Amino acid sequence: MSIVDRRAAGGLTVVALLGALCWVVTWGPLRAAQLPSGETIAAAGPLDQVVGPPGKALYDSSCAACHGPQGEGTPNGPALTESGAASVDFMLRTGRMPQPAPDQPVRRDRPAFDEADIQALVAYVSSFGNGPPIPAAQVNDSSDLAAGRAAYVATCAACHGAAGSGDAVGGGAIAPPLLDTPPTQVGEAIRIGPGAMPAFDDRQISDQDLSSIAAYLAFLRQKAAPGGQTVGGVGPVAEGYVAWLVYLVGLLLVTRWIERRRQRSDQPG
Amino acid sequence: MTDRSRSDGGATELDRLIGWLDERTGFAEVTRGALRKVFPDHWSFLLGEVALFCYVVLVATGVFLTFFFAADSRPVTYDGPYVPLHGAQVSAAFDSVMRLSFEVRAGLLMRQIHHWAAVVFVAAIVIHVCRIFFTGAFRRPREINWLVGFGILVLALAAGFTGYSLPDDLLSGTGLRIFYSVAESIPFIGPWFAYLFFGGEFPTVELLGRLYVFHIMLIPALMIGGITVHLAILWIQKHTQYAGGRARETNVVGRHFWPGQVFRSTGLFLLTAAIIAVVGGLVQINPVWVYGPFVPFAVSSPAQPDWYIGWLEGALRLGPNWEPTILGVTIPSLFLPGIVVPTVLFGGFALWPFIEARLSGDHREHHILQWPWQAPVRLAIGSAVLTLFVMLTIAGGNDVLAVFLHVGVEELTQTLRILAFVAPLVVAAIAYRLAIERRRRDAEDEQ
Amino acid sequence: MSRPPVGRSRVEWLVAGLFGVTALAGVGLLLVYVLGGQTQVEGVLLAIALGSLGVGIVLWAQDLMVTPVVVEERHPYGSDPVIAADLDATLDEEAGFTRRRLLVGMLLTALAGLAAALAIPVLSLGPAPGRELFTTAWRPGKRLVGADGTPIRATDIPIDSLVTVFPEGDPGSADSQTLLIRVPPGLLRLDPSRASWAPEGYVAYSKICTHAGCPVGLYRASERKLICPCHQSTFDVLTGAMPVFGPAARALPQLPIRLQPDGTFVADGDFPEPVGPSFWNETS
Question: Do B50 and A255 touch (CB under 8 A)?
Fold first, then answer.
């Protein structure tokens, strides 16, 4: 290969590496280094009339062992008499329930039931007693994003992050990322306080504010990154890794390329 | 240089210009000497230039930003195009950054290039310092330049901290609160000093303006002066070089400053700026509209400073909850990790050339560089300190890391507390052994 | 020494082409700007413009120039000892400068006094701390209100939830920010002297972390633990916000509160110890 060809090859290698760098920080592995988000079935909202297996049969086979035949609770699982539709719907759709074993920490997972079964169970279990209904979280063009942002920063951002990226809260618990969470699920979590999360009723966060928060999260997901790729939304930690990646992969290679030994131009003078 | 033996026998325009200037200033001789000055041409000698060019980008974009930023704490109501902040009470400073990001063309690009250049600038300095340290370039007669470089590093940290605190957003305001508390923790003078710097009890309306004065006036003035001295000393003392070929302690082997070095350095500047520009356009950094304005009773997590302050953040997270009261004087738990540890580390760092000269007994001049393994003790100590800084920086992001690794944050913190002591020792031992082995192999090869 | 022209080489065409790319990218940038601007496109075009120019210039240096390796001799740094001695003599030319001890002494005294006088304005930068760090805006009888100024009622807070409160008249006050937490009444295990400060399971603590001053905004409701996001200091609500993990060494100060018949709360006084991070004389 002549000097010119090697020169050009070196230049093209630098360009290719820069392109690879761009890919890594934008669509590639770094972007995937985000907090885990579980798969969920989008909530259907208020209950429709669905013909399916009765909720009682499902409950008896999947839930009664830990929660008791009438939802009165057992040593293995709490009572469900105060649960309400929101709680049941949330737990089933996010796969937190049913749990594989009673002593495990409650974790997000793939849902175990399909849509019809979930609705049947919700209807059945919420009949055990009183609890928060499934909130109607409306997200549309007339949503009050400013109110949503204010409420979110005041109440939610400390655990879930200003960017909705989630964070560890200690004690083995994680406040999950919220950008992919359907609005109804956001509303349900606010009302029931699942896991380590406190519950907020409609005196602290009104139904209006609840919808606004869900709308704000949807906005964050779609329209809050005019600066480019967000690298996980976790702030300076990820930005620091990118800075070092940029330096080590970009600038160091550039300095090496600039000072490569050339045959012709460096003759002893 | 200029070829005066042109066939037409006349002088070129350049000749005439040089003559005109030289008659008035006598600059030709000095300039000729400068252009012919010899610089060795190893790639590792460009690392300082990378840092310098990052700084040039910072100043250029920084000047642009100063035309739009308002260092004013007064509350205003936001009514710009970013809908989620409509009607929010924000400071005029935050409002000006929002305007710059959403309403000024190329404003967001300039802001992001400025911030990316800052985080890369410190990384470039760190790598440059590593090269200087591990090759022994700080030895006599270059101790002064080491100290000047240390000053530049500290100024860079201060510039970054004050800079990202200017938008008065929720994340950087939290960092300012921590800075205030660390200052407050100094026995006897802490609260007095914190009040002096901030203008009272946190949060104060005066602080923003003061940060601005530091960020655009005091620190850049000192920085540019320091860089000038840094380069002047380098110029006068001539650059060091690696052993090999015709290199000796008494000469410099390389190429002339003009044209080879100038062109290469110019190219390096442009490529540095290009890389920072592409990251500045494609990767979002510090989205202050997501954090929102600083409110003293709200907070977001994860909460970290920019990476180059991360070592201090990690020290605070790993620090023990000791808060003894001795003779009525409380020693706050922040004091040890926040004041004592940095003072020891940075003090040792600054004085290293003198420490090493004392320990090794070597007070001779050196212009030939060592390969890192040729000084095993220095390699071990430097590796250990570097590892400590890396552990502390990682600890600064322990909550993000805990989620990424699927471990509990408390367990990770306890592990890092141990690793912060153990890892540097292990790395030092390994580095030392490898260096000794390599030195022995080199000695055998020479026989 | 200049190269004799031998016709344009491939490298020369390449470099010329790269410079052309820069020119085009510059025009492109101008166009994007005129059309309204877009951050990502601007960044990429700027990078192309700068990068092409940079690569071109480096290729020019590496391939089109002859930059031979040369050797330059170093010269010793120190000046001629005769000159260094002359410097010493020059400084001594005012005969006996260092021997006029009275003048030198008074000169130093004058400079010290002047320095003190010039340093005084620096002290205008900040007031003396005084007792400010020991007090907040809480006073006996002050009602607990939310950030919007409306009084908080007991029924506003579900069990195991919490809200940030301030003294009435100072909503949003930084040093008075307080957490009002509702726990199941039988679970509280406070110091007996403080048990009456937490009526019916409602307990109030300062929200300012005693480690480095961040708002303690995270709450693991199932375990009744408050966590500070800055350095993960963890406080146990049931035992008087004692630190149970992390670098904080002091409990969050507790605010004495009383439940009024109308369901609102009032404070019974200020916090009993300074809020926020410790300082050297906080026990005085």
Answer: yes
Cis peptide bond prior to A194, omega within 30° of 0:
no
A238 falls within a domain: no
Kindly give the pairing relationship between strand B241-242 and strand B368-369: parallel
CA–CA separation, B66 vs A174, rounded Å? 40
B106: left (phi over 0), alpha (psi -120 to 50) or beta: left
B84/A226 CB distance under 8 A? no
Q: How many Å apart are CA B208 and CA B196, to the nearest integer?
A: 14
Residues of B in contact with C213 (CB under 8 A): 177-178, 180-181, 202
Window C:1-20, CB contacts with B under 8 Å: 2
- Chain B contact for C97, CB < 8 A? no
Looking at chain A, which residue has its C-alpha nearest residue C63? A265
Q: Which candidate from B85, B283, B301 shows the least CB-CB separation from A231?
A: B283
- The structure's pTM equals 0.90
> Mind giving me the DSSP string for B310-351?
HHHHHHHHHS-----EETTEE--TTHIIIIIHHHHHHHHHHH
Say how many domains are in chain A.
3
The C-alpha atoms of residue C149 and residue C178 are separated, in whole angstroms, by: 14
**Measured between CB atoms, does B268 come within 8 Å of chain A?**
yes
pLDDT per residue, tens digit, chain B (447 aa), is 445 445 455 678 988 999 999 999 988 888 888 999 999 989 999 999 999 999 999 999 999 999 999 999 999 999 999 999 999 999 999 999 999 999 999 999 999 999 999 999 999 999 999 999 999 999 999 999 999 999 999 999 999 999 999 999 999 999 999 999 999 999 999 999 999 999 999 999 999 999 999 999 999 999 999 999 999 999 999 999 999 889 999 999 999 999 989 999 999 999 999 999 999 999 999 999 999 999 999 999 999 999 999 999 999 999 999 999 999 999 999 999 999 999 999 999 999 999 999 999 999 999 999 999 999 999 999 999 999 999 999 999 999 999 999 999 999 999 999 999 999 999 999 999 999 999 999 999 887
**How many CB atoms within 10 Å of residue A16?**
10
Give the gap in angstroms from C-alpha C225 to the nearest C-alpha of chain A.
9
Do A205 and A226 have their domain in common? yes
User: Are A153 and A217 found together in one domain?
Assistant: yes
Residue A198 lies in a domain: yes
User: Which segments within C193-245 are labelled E, that is strand?
Assistant: 202-206, 218-220, 225-227, 234-236, 242-245
Indicate the residue of C66, C147, C161 with minimum beta-carbon distance to A267: C66
In 3D space, the residue among A175, A172, A194, A188 whose CA is nearest the CA of residue A234 turns out to be A175
Q: Which domain holds residue A80?
A: 38-133
* Strand C257-259 relative to strand C242-245, pairing: unpaired
Decide if A62 is inside a domain: yes
Q: How far is B362 from chain A (nearest CA, A)?
A: 32
CATH number at residue A56: 1.10.760.10
Contacts of A262 (CB under 8 A, 6+ apart): A3, C62, C63
Distance in angstroms (rounded) separating the CA atoms of residues B367 and B254: 14
Length of chain B: 447
Tell me: do A159 and A171 sit in the same domain.
yes
Same domain assignment for residues A254 and A228? no
Question: Residue C225: phi, psi to the nearest 5?
Answer: -120, 135
CA distances from C32 to B147, B423, B433, C29, C184 (A): 46, 51, 57, 5, 61
Buried residues in A230-244 as b, exposed as e (16+ CB within 10 A) = bbbbbbbbbbbbbbb
Report the distance separating Cα C238 and Cα C264, nearest Å: 22
For CA atoms C226, C231, C232, C234, the dihedral sign is negative
Q: Closest residue of A to C11, CA-based?
A: A4
Total domain count, chain B: 1
Q: Using an 8 Å Cβ cutoff, are C125 and B197 in contact?
A: yes
Write out the H or E segment, with its range, that includes residue A23. Answer: helix A3-26
